[in-house]
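anyone seen this seq b4? input:
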Amino acid sequence: MLISKYGNGSKELVSEFESRLGIELDEEYKKFLVKYNGGDTPNTHVGIRGCSTDLRYLYGINTEKSIEDHLQIPIWENKQYLPIGTDFFGNYFVIGLSDENKGKVFFCNHERGFAVKQIADSFKVFLSKCKSEEIHPGARETPEEREKDLIARGSAHVITDVLREIWKKEYEKYKDMVQEKVIL
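predicted toks r here
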């Protein structure tokens, strides 16, 4: 799986997070938070145990897309599951915290009353079932470069202001994004 990490975490950051929430995380997930602290996961598909969706991002601690911003979901109330990521439809990926499900990863469907379905026996297995493609090089071209390329290929007729706006947003999102392989 490829990720554009939010930055390095630290053992101290993870330990403080666990203390603040009164939880103990699985060791594999702790390693992930220390090394990557979450990140964007463009072009990443999850296909495991009847779950087929795209992973949008994995949350970090004290990041723009932070775990703590998602603790309002009903399944967090009894501290059985911690939200760790989401797909493009607002469904959650959660990791088990209780003795019976610690470290197991579940898909949490918000349209079905936040019903959880186990999809991996461990965080590492979950990561192994996430398949990523690199960001297309064209997404890192400026809108001007893309327009020039289409004109050179004789396709100037497809260029519109709407398309230019899409290119601009895509360029801003991906221009500085660095993907790396997740290794725990």
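DSSP finds five helices and ten strands in the chain. The beta strands are 2-5, 39-40, 44-48, 51-58, 81-87, 92-96, 105-109, 115-120, 130-132, 180-181. kinda curious what u guys think
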